[in-house]
Amino acid sequence: MSGSDTLVSFRGVQKTYDGETLVVRNLDLDIRRGEFLTLLGPSGSGKTTSLMMLAGFETPTRGEILLDGRSLANVPPHRRDIGVVFQNYALFPHMTVEENVAFPLSVRRVPKAEQRERAHRALSLVRLEGFGGRRPGQLSGGQQQRVALARALVFEPKLVLMDEPLGALDKQLREHMQIEIKHIHESLGVTVAYVTHDQSEALTMSDRIAVFNDGAIQQLDTPAGLYETPCNSFVARFIGENNSLAGTVEAVDGGQCSVRLADGSRLRARAVNVAGPGSPTSLSVRPERVHIEDEAQGHENRLSGEVQETIYHGDHLRVRMALDAGSPFTIKMRFRTGRPVPKPGERLPVAFAASDCLALDPA
Hints:
It contains eight helices and 20 strands. The chain is of the alpha+beta class. The protein folds into two domains: about 5-230, Rossmann fold (3-Layer(aba) Sandwich); about 240-360, CATH 2.40.50.140. The strands form four sheets. The chain has a six-stranded mixed β-sheet, with helices on both faces. The chain has a five-stranded mixed barrel with strand order 11-12-13-20-14. It has a five-stranded antiparallel β-sheet with strand order 15-19-16-17-18, with no helix packed on it. Strand 4 (about 60-65) and strand 5 form a beta hairpin. It is globular.
């Protein structure tokens, strides 16, 4: 990637609050111009701290952050040309919606008439025309979030940072706003760095996702790359639903390996991240890639177990099983009218292709 394609660079960035524990460890990350990059991970993984260092609200303990090739060391937040959207909106309750949106322009001493014009344009972008005279307290949570987004975009920043911006909204509104923000990003071409712990949100919105754990990026990839080829068992567990089977590698043959489970069963898997024969491994299989009953025919990996629970989800059934190999296992079956529903206590074969079974580092 050429330098002109990179808007933000983290170079060897570390952060500690107590001088001992590193919240962020040796972070090297490039954010491409115009992309929607999500920092995804559990609480305490370092994602929000990384975003706050980029915004200027936290200072790196070591390393440097570059914006457009320029070091941000000693550059205060208001001089970084970065828009920020927080989960709690951070709107001024005594100001009108228009005054809230225009606030970054007034700080930059933009003439009043231009402030008004640009605030109207930003409110139109988030579909809040006609709301400029209201106070934030007269708006719903979703509307307040749109105002916060308009305020972050009104001064046309190079970069917009969003820290869990949809966390306070209900599920339906959150899903609607995900698409809304993605469309705004696409229409403006602005660079977005977005923090969330919600993996479905990250998969829906992102061009690329950096998966954080314990202060470090575990994997940086497209949504499809993370889901289809996680590099380790943490990413496999964190991105989407996943079945894990513990086993020992018996042989590695090119891109595949054979694995023995605790009950002696042998499976074939893609050797994504294994140490070699005799090493422990964690097999990853997505629930929608597993077949049961008549659909189990013809797949090389076959196991059996007992149905524990079947849950109806409209378009599919979620079948929870206890495998003879001693592992809990979940299967997503497409629901078809007239098809028998697996009953608790029923014994069934399960099967899946070797190409859908990934052998990973068990750590």
